[in-house]
Amino acid sequence: xxxxxxxxxxxxxxxxxxxxxxxxxxxxxxxxxxxxxxxxxxxxxxxxxxxxxxxxxxxxxxxxxxxxxxxxxxxxxxxxxxxxxxxxxxxxxxxxxxxxxxxxxxxxxxxxxxxxxxxxxxxxxxxxxxxxxxxxxxxxxxxxxxxxxxxxxxxxxxxxxxxxxxxxxxxxxxxxxxx
Length: 179
Known about the structure:
alpha+beta
């Protein structure tokens, strides 16, 4: 699958088959994360593949009771290490969150190419997730995603043109312009 097809096909999947992910496929998902770019190539991240049923249930509860998250055989937790990130992104900010987001986006596209589904999860209680997974205080849990085979065939159906804003609402050239 070419990358533009993966981009157009990727959907938020909220229902998963009770099917394990083969080790080779898991390895490809890890490679997608590992090879993602980061500011100055500092790679200020750690990705936790949560496979333990009890931990997945705990993360789902810590995600404001989104219990469907635990249906997936794996929950990938993206952690940023701000102390190891590029410090002056845009002249003032830390790149850690953006670096982790780029890597997780690579994961979501690699997942589509392998017939897997994901769903960005930003609604969670960070302290609870950190306690469950023994994440150090100096590390930030940025986002997480369930990873598994979609239960519904439309889980990774192509995006329709009507699902997106018109190009003139999204793009401009040589300056910011609103239509």
